Every structure is written in C-alpha cells, then in structure tokens.
C-alpha cells in the first residue's frame, strides 16, 4: 500500500500571495476553480492502492482547512488528515517528526510533494520507474527541463544519462549546474528516514553544543534538498524521472493565473464537467464557470468565475480569476487580473494587468517569480483587487495591487494602494 504526503507550509510562507493570502491560506486559493491543493490531492487519490493522504504544515487548524479536508475526503473517498508542526521544521524535518504516522500500516513507499506546484502529476509513471530501479534506492525525484538562466531558481539535478541516477544535487545554485530541475514531487521508501535521522542526530549534537556555549536556541530545521539530496547524490540512492508534461511553481498570484490556464486545458480530458459549455443563447465562454449567465458578454480564454458572481451585459473578461461574490457591472473589462471576493468593478471600468507568462518561444521557459519591486518601482504584473474593493465606473486600474476594503475614487497605475 501507498501513502501521499503534501507539504502545505504555513502562514509566514505565501507572502508573494498577499493580499489574497490574508483571506485564505495560500494552498486553498482557487486555481482553475478549485483550491490549489485539491489538484495535488486528486492526483494522489487516483493512484491505485493509495491508503491515505497526509497534509503537513504549520498553519493553525481552522474552519476553512477542516471544511476543505472533510469535503475532499467525502468526494474522493480516501482518508485525508492534517498534521501540524509545532514550528516550521523544513521540508525534511516535518516528515521526520511525523514518521511514525507516515509509516503506520507499513506503506511500501510514499509520495511527497510541495503544495505550491501545478503539474500533470505523473505519479503512476514515477511508481513504475521506481519499481524498475530495484530495491536498493530510497527515492525518485520528478525532474523537468528548464532553460539555463531560470534553472538557477530551482534545485538542479545532474544525472547519469544511462541509469538516471542522481549524481549531484544543488539547491538554487549561483552558477549553472544542470538544466534538469527538481519539481518538488518525490517517491520515497521508508529508508529515507534513516538518512534524515542521521542528519537529525548530528544537528541535535550541534544544537546542544550551541545552547551550552552561546545559550542560543537553534531551530530543528532539516531541508530535504540541501541536507539530504546533496549528500545522497552519487550514492545510487536517488534517481530522477523526467517529465515532458506541464509543470509550474505557484509562488505568486500571477503564477496562479498561468497555472489555471494549464489546468483548464487539462480539464478537457480530465474534468470536462468543470468547464463551461457554450450553448445557443448563452454568452461566449472560453474557460470555466460556476454560474449561468445571460447573453452579450465574452468570457475567456482562461477565466474562472467563482460562485455567486454577478456579471453585467457587455462585460469582457480574459486571463483572469474572479472570486466568489464579485460584481462586474455592465461593460467593464477585466484583463490579466484577480478580482477579490465581494469586490465590485463599476460600469465601463477597466481593470488590467501585465501577464507574467513564460516566454512562448522557449519550450523550456518557466514562469518568472519576479520580485515585487525592480529599480525602485513596482514590477509590472497582474492587477490584484483584494476582497471587498470597490472600483468606481469609468476608471482604469492598471498593474496595481489594491488592498482589501478599499473604495477607490479615481484611476491608478503601477501602485500598491494601501
Ligand atoms: N510543512 C512544511 N512545509 C514547508 C516547510 N518549508 C517549506 N514548506 C513547503 O515546501 C514547499 C517548498 O518550499 P520552499 O521552501 O518555498 O522551496 P521552493 O523555493 O519552492 O523550492 C522547492 O521547490 C522547487 C520546485 O517548486 C524545487 O526546485 C526546489 O528544489 C525546492 O524543493 C512549499 O509547498 C512550502 O509550503 C516547512 O517547514 N514545513
């Protein structure tokens, strides 16, 4: 039997998702109409012999997370539970802390994945690849190809081209190491805990020494990438399975729009019922929708509209996420933007952002997780309206971030509106 563990992080992570992460924990932000985390969970639930999915993070359990877990359990008919770390223990520390729960029932192997990745999740292929590589290794890493410049933002893997063994692993190197990058999706046997345990013991000695000499409390963090993969590389313990399918990180709100596009495309095969259909007498929709609308509006491509959204006549929306309860009044235009919960865009208003899509001419390009500011100014990016923002009629809001509950009275460009 198998298990799956998803690392969901905690409140101080997800800062590039502000102001949207003020309202929901980042893993529950909707991507292609469902919480980001649901895509990972659905992929895990489809693997035969999957017995349990465990979420590990340092969020305080709250109603939203509990509701999400219980509805996902019911829908997918698989046990899902949340284990809370007492502090951020790192990508290896959390699983080590909860190793007894992970190993209970004796899983033959377990998947581990970051919650903030969007992927076709080739989990069954990884499982087959793992079985083909005998019993003596302890893990398979999912890898994909990136271009040379962008590879520096990821964990980089050097492989043996014949055997796919991981020969070197360097996390976010400062100079080029390899164009194969770590996707943050792994398959491990229980042997991985022996290796994390060795690092844990060593760190423990150092922590005690440090406390005795300097009186300083050191955190118990273990990073899977720097502390484990780097050491295990070259010991025939790790292998890399390379995927040709889509994969992207979801670090910023802009990357959520890009990830939505990737998932909406996948819905044509995987979940056609989630896509809006175009029938005679209904508006033209290229994307997905939760509600029924009347004629005379053009929505899409790549649009997801939350429940309870009101859309007036003559409205144009594309490359955007409109969250539940929002009101788009007649003839307004929303492009490359996220409209927050219960926000209103007035008549003939224009809310517009700059897409941060990967270079379409480079097959290996990934989305850039730009910093918020460059050269002293706000980096042109998608426009984000926090929740309950009011945009009056006939104004233009471009490349701006509007914090929740703002009532704007004029046009704005390239600003964070506090
Ligand atoms: N539970 C828990 N989760 C954590 C912790 N720290 C990070 N995470 C979760 O682990 C994932 C990755 O965390 P980051 O620390 O933000 O790393 P990264 O910059 O995304 O890089 C990682 O992912 C890349 C692929 O997206 C990899 O290329 C890279 O090697 C690395 O694994 C996220 O889902 C985050 O929420 C922790 O202390 N506890």
Automatic annotation (TrEMBL):
InterPro entries: GMPPB_C, Mannose-1P_guanyltransferase, NTP_transferase_dom, Nucleotide-diphossugar_trans. The keyword Glycoprotein does not apply. Gene3D superfamilies: Hexapeptide repeat proteins, Spore Coat Polysaccharide Biosynthesis Protein SpsA, Chain A. GO terms for molecular function: GTP binding; nucleotidyltransferase activity. It comes from the Eukaryota. Pfam families: GMPPB_C (PF25087), NTP_transferase (PF00483). Residues 3-198 form the Nucleotidyl transferase domain. Residues 298-417 form the Mannose-1-phosphate guanyltransferase C-terminal domain. Belongs to the transferase hexapeptide repeat family. Regulatory subunit of the GMPPA-GMPPB mannose-1-phosphate guanylyltransferase complex; reduces the catalytic activity of GMPPB when part of the complex. Mediates allosteric feedback inhibition of GMPPB catalytic activity upon binding GDP-alpha-D-mannose. Together with GMPPB regulates GDP-alpha-D-mannose levels. One of two paralogs (gmppaa and gmppab) that may have redundant functions. This is Mannose-1-phosphate guanyltransferase alpha-B-like. It comes from Sinocyclocheilus anshuiensis. The gene is LOC107688916.
């Amino acid at each position: 039997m198998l298990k799956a563990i998803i690392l969901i992080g905690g409140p101080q992570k997800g800062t590039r998702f502000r102001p949207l992460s003020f309202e929901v924990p980042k893993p529950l932000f909707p991507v292609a109409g469902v919480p980001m985390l649901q895509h990972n969970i659905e992929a895990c639930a489809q693997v035969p012999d999957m017995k349990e999915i465990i979420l590990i993070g340092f969020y305080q359990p709250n109603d939203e997370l509990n509701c999400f877990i219980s509805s996902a359990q019911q829908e997918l008919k698989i046990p899902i539970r949340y284990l809370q770390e007492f502090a951020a223990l790192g990508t290896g520390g959390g699983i080590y802390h909860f190793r007894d729960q992970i190993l209970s029932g004796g899983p033959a192997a377990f998947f581990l994945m970051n919650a903030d990745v969007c992927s076709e999740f080739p989990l069954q292929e990884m499982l087959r690849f793992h079985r083909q590589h005998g019993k003596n290794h302890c893990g398979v890493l999912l890898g994909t190809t990136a271009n040379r410049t962008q590879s520096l933002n990821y964990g980089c893997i050097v492989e043996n081209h014949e055997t796919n063994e991981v020969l070197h692993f360097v996390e976010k190197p400062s100079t080029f190491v390899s164009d194969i990058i770590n996707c943050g999706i792994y398959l491990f046997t229980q042997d991985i805990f022996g290796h994390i345990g060795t690092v844990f013991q060593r760190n423990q000695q150092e922590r005690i020494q440090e406390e005795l000499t300097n009186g300083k409390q050191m955190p118990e963090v273990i990073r899977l990438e720097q502390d484990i993969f780097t050491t295990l590389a070259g010991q025939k313990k790790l292998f890399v399975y390379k995927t040709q399918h889509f994969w992207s990180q979801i670090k910023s709100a802009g990357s959520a729009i890009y990830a939505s596009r990737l998932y909406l495309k996948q819905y044509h095969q995987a979940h056609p019922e989630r896509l809006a259909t175009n029938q005679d007498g209904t508006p033209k929709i290229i994307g997905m929708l939760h509600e029924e609308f009347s004629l005379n509006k053009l929505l899409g491509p790549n649009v997801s509209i939350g429940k309870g959204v009101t859309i007036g006549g003559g409205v144009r929306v594309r490359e955007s996420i409109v969250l539940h309860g929002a009101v788009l009044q007649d003839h307004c235009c929303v492009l490359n933007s996220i409209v927050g919960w219960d926000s209103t865009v007035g008549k003939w208003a224009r809310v517009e952002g700059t897409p941060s899509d990967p270079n379409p001419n480079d097959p290996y390009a990934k989305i850039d997780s730009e910093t918020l500011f460059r050269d002293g100014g706000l980096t042109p990016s998608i426009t984000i309206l926090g929740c309950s923002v009011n945009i009056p009629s006939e104004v233009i809001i471009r490349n701006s971030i509007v914090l929740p509950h703002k009532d704007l009275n004029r046009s704005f460009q390239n600003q964070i509106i506090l």
